[in-house]
Amino acid sequence: MSTTVAAYAAPSAKAPLERTTIERRAVGEHDVLIEIKFAGICHSDIHMATAGWGEAIFPMVPGHEIAGVVTEVGSGVTKFQVGDHAGVGCMVDSCRECDNCKAGLEQYCAQGNVQTYGAVGKDGEVTYGGYSTHIVVDENFALRIPDGLSLDVAAPLLCAGITTYSPLKHWNAGPGKKVAVLGMGGLGHMGVKIAHALGAEVTVLSQSLRKKDDGLKLGADHYYATSDPETFEKLRGSFDIILSTVSAPLDFGAYLALLKTDGALVNVGAPEEPISLNLFSVIGGRKTLAGSMIGGIAETQEMLDFCAEHGLGAEIELIAASEINEAYERVLKSDVRYRFVIDTATI
Q1: How far from 331 is each of 45, 91, 227, 334, CA to CA, in Å?
Q2: In the predicted model, what is the mean pLDDT of residues 320-327?
Q3: Less CB within 10 Å around the terminal CB: N or C of the chain?
Q4: What family is reported (predicted)?
């Protein structure tokens, strides 16, 4: 039997979020029921709730940075027990049969993965996310949150953590590598922490020096303002990897010029507008302009274990559910250090 639970939803595009109730499916043979304790607010939630990335399904319950406690397990569940700390990230299912799924790259499922919210599941039902008190999810798409991580600072790792960890690992960030993190927000601050923990030399490129002290404290070795033209002269040809967490259009030619030969500019921020690019900026220096989307389930678990081992949680501002709309406005003004997390007990 399905269960009615409290949630916060956007009734239509650009409408303020409001308290409501939603139905969660009955716990199936391979499902776990998670009582959500904390839910992070990702910039993606705002893009989705405003239909900024195109058509979207409303009413919408956003939230794909979910941390809580398992309160019920299906009869066939083997990975979780009642009482375990568990999380849910950006997807709750995939085809499980394509080459990408078999390779542990469910995020690139050939048939399209099922997003945690704003999507239609295999059962034909719309998915609702973490701005709610409970969620039912297949055990294969739930993550184990290690004991070393508090649930409140772990929640943002389910998107911001894996979104930065996956490309840093893929492009071999580590000792001897120079990594620049572009943008010091919810994603960027985790990129700095993770790149530092991987052993890379880390530079933050931010619009201003306003957050410089924070950046250095979180593990950056250097910090430069992109509003200063001298930055682009001084750092030309410096980096092996630039991880762009920015969701606004950039002068890609200027940033590609900061790469060494064979360097990669990897985008994890997704602007709503198309970009323009002069291809000579990648041809000269055999450079790569790339993108990366979250990570597979196994890699997400690897990231959580890595963060627990290195004592890495998100820097958060805990809010009540009644403050979600205000939090959205503040995210758009870059007025958060560095991730809003909803205390779901307040829903």
Answers
A1: 11, 23, 20, 5
A2: 98
A3: N
A4: Belongs to the zinc-containing alcohol dehydrogenase family.
